[in-house]
Specification:
The strands form two sheets. This protein has a six-stranded mixed beta sheet, with helices on both faces. Strands 5-7 form a two-stranded parallel sheet. It is globular and about 55 Å long. It has a single domain, classed as Rossmann fold (3-Layer(aba) Sandwich), CATH 3.40.50. By secondary structure, it is of the alpha/beta class. The protein starts with a helix and ends in a 27-residue tail after the last strand. Helices cover 29% and strands 21% of the residues. Orotidine-5'-monophosphate (OMP) binds next to helix 2, strand 5 and helix 3. GO terms for molecular function: glycosyltransferase activity. InterPro entries: PRTase-like, PRTase_dom. Keywords: Glycosyltransferase, Transferase. This is Orotate phosphoribosyltransferase.
């Protein structure tokens, strides 16, 4: 999402969902790249600290914050597609001694069995074919898979 003000509105909604669905959360863990940006926005609404994971070449903490094992963490992302990233991250957090309360996302293609998943909107994804030229009217989705 390119507009920070709009991102913040969704982040506020996601923060409210996390407060309701995952009470007792002490840390938000952001997915790589855009997930990290989103997570910082969400955390600001909850007054919680953040940490970020990198998944390639192997799961690791981003050096900005290596949290202790006492945390009760929620993994935050915008979209869950195959669920592989979320699963890998959750396994990493547990291996680091943290308690994983669940995963919060906007929408997911998978139920993410074995993890507690909460999404802002129900499945399924709506998928668009990228357009080269503007269609007769909005919306125009360029290079977007989901
Ligand atoms: O840009 C992306 O990484 C991305 C593009 C897209 O169209 N769909 C999509 O799910 N993603 C990201 O891919 C990650 C989820 O992929 P899975 O690990 O397959 O569930 C999330 O971090 C999403 O933000």
């Amino acid at each position: 999402m390119r507009d920070p003000a709009r991102l913040d509105r969704v982040a506020a909604w996601q923060a409210q969902a996390i407060a309701t669905q995952f009470p007792g959360t002490t840390l938000l863990v952001g997915a790589p790249a855009c997930g990290a940006v989103l997570t910082a926005f969400v955390a600001r609404h909850l007054g919680l600290p953040v940490a970020f994971v990198t998944l390639e070449p192997a799961p690791a903490w981003h050096r900005m914050h290596v949290p202790g094992p006492q945390h009760r963490a929620v993994y935050v992302d915008d979209l869950i597609c195959t669920g592989e990233g979320a699963r890998t991250a959750a396994a990493f957090l547990r291996a680091q001694g943290l308690t994983v309360l669940g995963v919060s996302a906007w929408i997911s293609r998978t139920a993410l069995a074995g993890e507690r998943l909460h999404t802002l909107a129900p499945p399924p994804f709506q998928t668009w074919t990228p357009h080269e030229a503007a269609p007769a009217g909005p919306p125009l989705h360029v290079g977007v898979r989901e």
